[in-house]
Amino acid sequence: MAGHAVEHDYHLIPPSPWPFLSGVACMVWGLGMVVFFAGLQPRNGDSPMKEFFFSKGLDTLQGKEGASGGWILLVLGSLFAAYVMFGWWRDVARESEVGDHTPVVDIGLRYGMIMFIMQEAMFFVGWFWMFFELGLFHKMRAKWNTDVLENAPAYADSMAPGISSINWAGLPLMNTLILLLSGCTVTWAHHALIHNDRKGAKWGLGLTVLLGVWFVIMQAIEYLEAFHGRTHGEPWLSTDAYGSAFFLATGFHGLHVAIGAIFLFVCWARLMRGGFKPEKHFGLEAAAWYWHFVDVVWLFLFAFVYIVFGFNAL
Amino acid sequence: MRFKRPNLMSVMTGLTAALLAGSAAMAAEPTPGGWWLQEPATPVMVKLTEVHNLVFWIICAIVIFVMVLMGYIMIRFREKANPVPSKTSHNTLIEVIWTIVPVLILLVIVVPSMQLLYYQDQVPETELTVKAVGNTWNWEYAYPDYENIESYISNPLDEDASEAAGKPFLLGTDAPLVVPVNTKVKVLVTSLNNMHAWTVPSFGIKMDAVPGLVNETWFEVFEEGTYYGPCSEICGVNHYYMPIEVQVVSKAEFERWVANDGAFPGQTAQLGGTTTAAQK
Amino acid sequence: MVAIPETGGYGADHDDGKPGFFARWFYSTNHKDIGTLYLIFGIISGLIGGYLSFMMRLELMEPGFQYFANGHDFNVFASMHGLIMIFFMVMPAVIGGFGNWFVPIMIGAPDMAFPRMNNLSFWLLPVALICLLISFFVPGTAAGDGFGGGWVMYPPLSTSGSPGPAFDFIIIGLLAAGFSSIFGAINFITTILNMRAPGMTLHKMPLFAWSVLVTAFLLLLALPVLAASLFMLFTDRIDGGTGFFDPAMGGDPQMFQHLFWFFGHPEVYIMILPAFGIISHIVSTFSRKPIFGYLGMAYAMVAIGVVGFVVWAHHMYTVGMDVNLKAYFLAATLIIAVPTGVKIFSWLATMWGGSIRYTIPMQWALAFIFLFVIGGVTGVMLANAGVDAYLHDTYYVVAHFHYVLSMGAVFGIFAGFYYWFGKMSGIQYNKWLAAAHFWLFFIGVNVIFFPQHFLGYNGMQRRVADYPEAFELWNKVSSYGAIITLIGTGFFFLMLLEAFTIGRKTRRVGDNYWGDGATTLEWTLSSPPPFHQFNTLPRIEDTDEH
Ligand code: HEA
Ligand code: HEA
Ligand code: CUA
Ligand SMILES: [Cu+2]
């Protein structure tokens, strides 16, 4: 059996450094996360050492002094990860160009992308579950729990003053429109490519990336306003549980928008360099799927987090 | 099937009792070398033991059945005894049977099990309310019904002290929860910091103490005596050393104790505190 | 130790393009090499996890403190033992190891769908393990280094209760391990759905591939929820961070338990389903009979997977849930006994009428069936919410899950290991060493864990470093069992040592060394298989047996 010429259409890949290097990047980055947020000391302990590993990263954000090795590790890890991603992606693009992605491999890529999106969906199920539980049931919990009702004002205002200060009809509505529009432009790009209108495809894709970036910027502005309106010099993220769910759910969504925008940007770069053919452009399709997924998640966020619970809080 | 159940259960309970004859000493605490449920002290635990025994015998029967069947197959169809294997790989009837029969067995289990669950969970009209607040690492008891009794901390006894007090080490405390016998007592369980679980095995009670949440459960003890249990939710360094001791006294004695503002003769607990010094 | 000799076994081609050492083992894109890496990794983690459990058993041999400074250190050992055994021993061994090795071969594929991502899945694991090991040595609480909140990591003990960075490292490590598994799951699903050989419909696919397919879906749907909850823990732990689980901020500590067990219960089936698959092959091979009720077997696993997603709160009967919810979870949990019973009885029926040979893998498989039934039925006991009020968080639970894990999953791993050892290495194991390993291990684990039922009945709670004297007897017995098990595990390593030194020269094996009972595709290849198999895809005929 062995030694025969390869008679199948699967894609066997020669050894590649990227996975191993990803592991290394992950190690640096993970170390950076811990050092940045925790420092290698108990947070409540009082260590005289304010050095590389032992600084408390968060202090910086709170305006207290404290040098932070975490920054350096995080930046290093991220740069390294970016380098790995670049190399890996470049290899894939090249393989696609030399025709390694036969029809059967192409189907495999599709399966892979669908599974990846399913996985992402479950990730957001986690956030929404938390969000609804806190939003819907905490009053019920408070009723069971007379003690807390009596003495914890936290419960009383846990209908998130922060949320009400964000009017859904303002920035969030605009963001919704931005995302919906970007969903259109990415579809435009796709169709243009299928009809071999490369110029249209470039425009569509470029616009989509710009819209994605715009969304992220708007979201950042919204956050800044929310913080400003709510915390008045309070610790950075410190908020009630409801606000926690709000910030992390929308925050992780924002992160996904950023990832999707990078993905689309890579496709745009490939397109500019002459990549993708009308009949074969799965990279772009995958990016578009991902983009639509992010879009749908946003619609849920918008409907429930901003509108439904936003009204509640008014 | 359903109306036969009590019958079956009593047979099973009888069997269990026979099996355990000889080790019938009152076990309000773990028995040395013991290998069975602690002696029930409340109606809930009586029912719990019954359901347990029913399930226990059923699962024993299942294990024995599988064991015997497997033993038979292993001998009967070993290579020497059966050199030529058959080729059967389907038999719809038998497949249906081994799907249906377990379902039936489970039905037998689920009915009494549900009854127990609801019995245990529905707090009846109670005559006394006590509050158990978990703290790292001791319990604080309060009697909301009696204004004169200040809440007190029940600290575990160390090895020497428990020997002196004649209580089992790691179960004895300096200030037990005191309740009257034959009285329905409601227990409110909560915690100040980490999670704990207020447990008295012979009452059939295990209730998590969760910060920010008050859980409810109840018991009614048949006999006077001292009943012990451990904290049953991991809560940090002294999780193993956070016992629960319940002293069940006659109603008259309980009244005396209340009249006495709930004082323990010669006890070492600080009274009236709401928290202990934070034991990190 | 490099498990695979550099020279191929019989029939292996010599210019099949094996890369040099570093590229081969670090930059690998070959499913068999990656599988080997996973297996080695699993063995190393098994040693670490076994060491931790052995220290616990030594400590618990007698009342009082012998080896640990305080309860915290013991808790650290227990927590890390649980995490390492589950995430770094069982999962890498059955899914990463055997799954990588044999799923592509069994379905007639030349490799996995995404060979590079496959290697990424592997390399995230050492990163994760290193994070966990670091956490031993950085502050956890004021009581000592490391994280001691149990493998279930409930807040507030894991947030305000463990202020040091030890637990942050665990979060990062588990996230890395989680993403590793998610990528692995995507890879397996794609491989199985897209790369089956011509003629191999899903209904002809070997049961091990089925089991990995179901497992991969469980991973794909369960792990992201764990990742989300780990992120919540992480931000909750930051000073001035979020308050998901902090009641003082309106949060709810119990929600973590829901999120965790929504992952955690499928997780236990993730660990056992591949073992089910392995056992099916072994039972069929050594009975020289096709699997009885193949379709029932496959769909029983699907049923276990599906129902496994809706029973999670049976771990939370005592948290103060609404009674109707408890009733629902009670009923749902009991249902799982039915498909599991189908599996048990189908194995027995496969043996019925067979011509059974008691080789080492078959011994492990038979022991698996028997001991898994014991562990399974004690699970049925625990499922009764009323009774669980007594048994929850006692050693009865510890006994239950070690019967299904340390005797279910681990016996499945060893069964598979002995079954395929010759296939993977080209060398047959030494029978006597293997038999010593089996018998000592079999006796040892039973002596460890059977008495723990008694301890649980008698009221001994879990995760304690010291206990009242009443529990001494059975704890002592249990600890003696650990010593026997340790010696047994020693024979496993002797067996490996012997095989790669003496056996390597004397006990080379051919393609199908188990004879005509072994019918899946791996037995058509040389032992070890060529670096790239199936350059011409095999064709599955209509009449082929599963
Ligand atoms: C491989 C891992 C594995 C497996 C397969 C199982 C299988 C099962 N488990 Fe287990 N379980 C764990 C690992 C596992 N468990 C772990 C790790 C914990 C503790 C976690 C922690 O707290 O740290 C735990 C805890 C646990 C609890 C919580 C206990 C507590 O904390 O209070 C419960 C309660 O319902 C439970 C139930 C079950 C049931 C009903 C099954 C069923 O799937 C079993 C089905 C099998 C059979 C029933 C036997 C074969 C069937 C027949 C022969 C047919 C006839 C049988 C009947 C009709 C009954 N398990
Ligand atoms: C797969 C999971 C697994 C396995 C195999 C084991 C194996 C063992 N465990 Fe396990 N244990 C857990 C999972 C496991 N455990 C979990 C989840 C907990 C709960 C933690 C918590 O409370 O949070 C726990 C808790 C726990 C406790 C309770 C601690 C407490 O509550 O205080 C005890 C005490 O005796 C114990 C003992 C043992 C012993 C003696 C073994 C022995 O069987 C060990 C013998 C050694 C081995 C079985 C390793 C052999 C394997 C290999 C060498 C790898 C082979 C690999 C290939 C061939 C590829 N364990
Ligand atoms: Cu308190 Cu455990
Ligand atoms: Cu479970």
Mean pLDDT over the residues of chain A: 79
Cα(first) to Cα(last) distance of chain C is: 35 Å
Class based on secondary structure composition and strand pairing of chain A: mainly alpha
Strand content of chain C: under 5%
Main sheet strand line-up of chain C = 1-2
The low-pLDDT segments of chain C are: 1-15
Rg from Cα of chain A: 23 Å
Oligomer: heterotrimer
Task: Compute the CA-based radius of gyration of chain C.
Answer: 23 Å
Helix content estimate of chain C:
55-70%
What general form of chain A does the structure show? globular
Task: Compute the separation of the termini of chain A in Å.
Answer: 72 Å
Number of helices of chain C: 15
CATH top level assignment of the largest domain in chain A = Mainly Alpha
- Please give the most extensive interface between any two protein chains, plus how many residues each contributes: B-C, 93 and 99 residues
Q: pLDDT under 50 segments of chain A (min length 5)?
A: 47-67, 151-164
N-to-C order of helices and strands of chain C: HHHHEEHHHHHHHHHHH
Order of helices and strands of chain A: HHHHHHHHHHH
Number of domains of chain A: 2
β-strand percent of chain A reads under 5%
The name of the CATH architecture of the largest domain in chain A is Up-down Bundle
Folded structure, characterized:
The complex is a heterotrimer of chains A (314), B (280) and C (546). Chain A is mainly α and 314 residues long. Chain A has two domains: 86 residues; 210 residues, Up-down Bundle (Four Helix Bundle (Hemerythrin (Met), subunit A)). Helix content of chain A is 74%, strand content 0%. With 280 residues, chain B is α+β, with helices and mostly antiparallel strands. Chain B is built from five helices and ten strands; from the N terminus they run H-H-H-E-E-E-H-E-E-E-E-E-E-E-H. In chain B, helix 1 crosses helix 2 and helix 2 runs antiparallel to helix 3. The N terminus and C terminus of chain B are likely disordered. Chain C is mostly helical. In chain C, strands 1-2 form a two-stranded antiparallel ribbon. Chains B and C meet through helix 2, helix 3 and strand 7 of B and helix 3, helix 7, helix 9, helix 10 and helix 11 of C. The site of one heme-A has 37 residues of chain C, from helix 2, helix 3, helix 13, helix 14 and helix 15.
